[in-house]
Design brief:
460 residues, mainly alpha, two-stranded antiparallel sheet, globular
Length: 460
Amino acid sequence: MLKVLIPTLFLVPMVWLLKTKWLWSSILINSLLVALTSLIWLNNPTEAGWTALNFYIATDPLSTPLLVLSCWLLPLMILASQKHLSLEPQIRQQSFITLLIILQSFLIMAFGATEFIMFYIMFEATLIPTLLVITRWGNQMERLNAGIYFLFYTLAGSLPLLIALMALQGNMETLSLLILQYSKPLLILSLGGKIWWTACVVAFLVKMPLYGVHLWLPKAHVEAPIAGSMVLAAVLLKLGGYGMMRLMVMLGPLSKEAAYPFILLALWGVVMTGSACLRQTDLKSLIAYSSVSHMGLVAGGILIQTPWGFTGALALMIAHGLTSSALFCLANTNYERTHSRTMLLARGLQIALPLMTSWWFFTSLANLALPPLPNLMGELVILTSLFNWSTWTLVLTGTGALITAMYSLYVFLMSQRGPLPQHMFNLPPTHTREHLLMILHLTPLILITFKPAVIWGWFA
């Protein structure tokens, strides 16, 4: 763990010591080396247990893919933000990169924590750099409003979790994940147990987010700069799913009763947010609502508490993280040229940017779960486990899958096909940087298809 965490922290002084002309290239190369180093975690000899560094930081088959995804995202964010920040003063460029590095460090410590209270602290600490990135580098007028939504939704959901963890500490006298997974808390059979269960789960459902408490996400995505949108979609939403998986191991029998309304709400959210995507005119807003739809499926897979549900949820989280981040990068390349996110104004781009259209096509197909990509593997396993749990879930999940295909094709056809508007004839061509960014997003997705054991079969 320290082989990755310490080099990541060493990037902070490097940012402030480098000259301006070497800043972006040096940080990009070094962060890419850190990301490649993190791949050693995937070569995990113990498929069913922890690879412990000490009692506070360790990796296991659940956290390893999410840790690698967090490390992989930093060079991609730096690559995507380079043009956006190139005209800003040097100190703002340095501050921005420093915030991204600090955010990655918090994420590594959150996913690697073996103490629940340490996970909670890092879970909350990720708010600060994300909030600063949204409010200080966002492009739109509503960015402060979006930051307030993001902060208060997450804090309001997290406070009951802190109280619940204190109650658990008093009950079990430990919050170590290494011990709690082999013990059952004594609170779960009383009425207070149901309140405690809800307090534990709500914080993670807000973070995912579950339909009904999702309003902060489209606002945050639309107002954030490209790096903020990427890290929100790819990793920060996954903190909610990861935390729920950790808790579900010990929430035990109570979940079988208490989870019913949340599963129903999650599956209803898949249909409703998918339908909302079909009405969107703003490209980033559409991609943000599609994230809520996919994470509703993940929440349903986790809440039914079966090995297949967990496996499918983890596979879909990793696949969605790469796909959704790639979609935001593509939306950003359009925005940098057309200065509009309205799909009606920025359309017909196949004529002007034909190679970028092929990236749009591949990513849209990944988003609608084209076989044999891991998106389909995750969705199929979740759908199967939900169907085994209750045959009626097929109505909502089937409708949701159909709507997902509809809005994925809708966004591709609206943005790429048709005549090029008169005001867009002099668009600058695409750059190697943008194609490299897409290759770095989609190559892991294809490699996972050939080696699914990386994220597949840990729980089955």
